[in-house]
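Problem 12. The chain below contains 206 residues. Write out its predicted structure in token notation.
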Amino acid sequence: MSPLDAWLYLDRMDLSRYWPKDAPTGWDQFHTRFKQGNITLEECAFLSPSQRHAFEIALESETYLPRIPSITVPQPITPDLFPLNEPGENAIVLVSANNRLTFDLLATIWSHGLTPAYFLLLDCSGHTVDMAMIFKTFTPERLQASLQKSGLETRVKHRRMIAPGLTAPLAKDFEKATGWQIEIGPVCAAEMPLFLGDRWLVPDAH
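Solution.
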């Protein structure tokens, strides 16, 4: 990563927690051999196709994620509701900040799968999630306002959403403000397919 690139929290991923405990090869041994090029995910028959696909996304994230410049000014995108993969009433809901670069990052991850989802981008004045937490623009009040404006409650029959890992301290406040169940997701977006588990749908080729 260039000193001029933003920190994408790739080092905050703990992929070992997704590795099957009964796997014949332990995570540390596999990861070491994988980095050395001595083993591939395809050789791990004990992983399901969905698991292999999700691990691939996480382990090879640096090869496909867009370069995000380290900038000091907000990069706003319209705070709105964005449907991906033709979501229906059971689609998962993710909430994030209305930063253009953050959205590009999430969209890149999502382009690798088929999972229907709604992305709810709340008005954080264009800050990334980490900066929104610092400047206090990712708030329960703004989340509640975004929910009302989006009309999301008429599109899904459940009341569950996944919030970014960095917003964990506000989870209870989010639930109180919205009445929705808040699931705290990973800090790094590249971990999301593994975090979703069976909810992550892979292309038929995998």
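Discussion. The chain has a mean pLDDT of 92. Students who got a different answer should revisit the alignment rule from Section 12.3.
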